[in-house]
Amino acid sequence: MALDPAEAERVLARLGEAKYLLLTTYRKDGSPVPTPVWVARDGDALVVWTVTTTAKVRRLRNDPRVELAECTFKGAPLGPGVAGTGRVLDDPERTERARSLIKKKYGLTGWLTVQASVIRRGRSGTIGLELTPTG
């Protein structure tokens, strides 16, 4: 069941303000793989930033279904999850926007982490993911 516009806004606000997001992607056999990630809101979607070669990127390319929930640093859910869709931001400008939003939200820690990653891996070593709660 799709979220009505008011509920979609509440979900986006809640998840976008969370310190950590439990991003669950799905293997080819359908089994879920939850991963805690940093998250920032970008309009009507959420963005995360990750290493380009991670399994979650491959899983998301194969299956856009995701589940999203607030969580602790270690990935313990703090509330109910919501279904959504995700896509890999192959456009370098969109990934740069995701980096920028993460740096802004997470302050000095975010800035240092993103900058260290760019120095270590180069700009193409990380990629943004766009997540949209659907219900």
Q: How would you describe what is shown here?
A:
- This protein is an alpha+beta fold.
- It has one domain: Roll (Pnp Oxidase, Chain A).
- The longest helix is centred in the C-terminal third of the chain and has 30 residues.
- The model has no long low-confidence stretch (mean pLDDT 95).
User: Which class do the helix and strand fractions yield?
Assistant: alpha+beta
Mean pLDDT: 95
Strand fraction band? 25-35%
Unreliable spans: none
SSE inventory with pairings:
Blueprint lengths: L4 H13 L2 E7 L5 E6 L2 E3 L2 E7 L3 H8 L2 E7 L10 E8 L2 H30 L4 E8 L2
Antiparallel strand pairs: 1-2, 1-5, 3-4, 4-7, 5-6, 6-7
Short description:
The protein is built from three helices and seven strands, in the order αββββαββαβ. It has helices at 5-17, 55-62, 92-121; strands at 20-26, 32-37, 40-42, 45-51, 65-71, 82-89, 126-133.
Task: Describe this protein with a few key phrases.
135 residues, alpha+beta, Pnp Oxidase, Chain A, seven-stranded antiparallel beta sheet, 7 strands
